[in-house]
Design brief:
5 helices, 4 strands, alpha+beta
């Protein structure tokens, strides 16, 4: 029985304190619609169970989806992973690299080898910034200002540095 199996796996994860809640969807060949199961609660101070409308932050998992979509778009011929990132930016935005003329390509963003830092330094410069959700009010204008004034410290493709900024651009 699917429900018993899912419960046996999920319930210990929420009762043990490791996870506050879990929402699980299963495509069951014996059913015309996906089956859903919900465990735990939506907040520490609230006993409300999660449901099909509960929003979860998926964090770094979005990078996997973004990379998959890039590859799919390349496969479909919509772009190539060797295309310059500059091709997809407004004309008013320019990447600067003082060490060479090597340009940042989509493949550099997806492999964290663009030379861009983890986060733009102007992300947390404002009192309006919520440290729990720093991107909520960060505008495209702020991002473009940062890019226009940032100088890459090494040639793209030569060094790995984890970059949420790079993946944000890729997205």
């Amino acid at each position: 029985d699917l429900e018993t199996e899912v419960k046996s796996i999920a319930e210990p994860l929420v009762t043990g304190g490791k996870n506050l809640s879990l929402s699980i969807g299963v495509i069951d060949p014996g059913s015309e619609t996906p089956r859903t199961f919900f465990f735990g609660r939506t907040a520490k101070e609230d006993s409300t169970k999660p449901n099909e409308n509960t929003v979860y932050e998926i964090g770094d998992l979005t990078k996997t989806f973004t990379a998959t979509l890039l590859q799919w778009m390349a496969y479909e011929g919509n772009m190539q992973i060797t295309d310059p990132v500059q091709n997809f930016m407004p004309d008013s935005v320019t990447f600067h690299n003082f060490t060479s003329t090597e340009i940042i390509k989509l493949m550099h963003l997806v492999t964290h080898t663009s030379g861009l830092p983890r986060l733009p330094s102007n992300l947390m410069n404002d009192k309006k910034t919520d440290p729990k959700n720093p991107y909520a009010k960060y505008t495209a204008a702020e991002l473009y200002y940062y890019i226009n004034n940032y100088i890459l410290e090494w040639e793209p493709g030569t060094r790995y540095q984890f970059s949420n900024l790079g993946y944000g651009l890729l997205g």
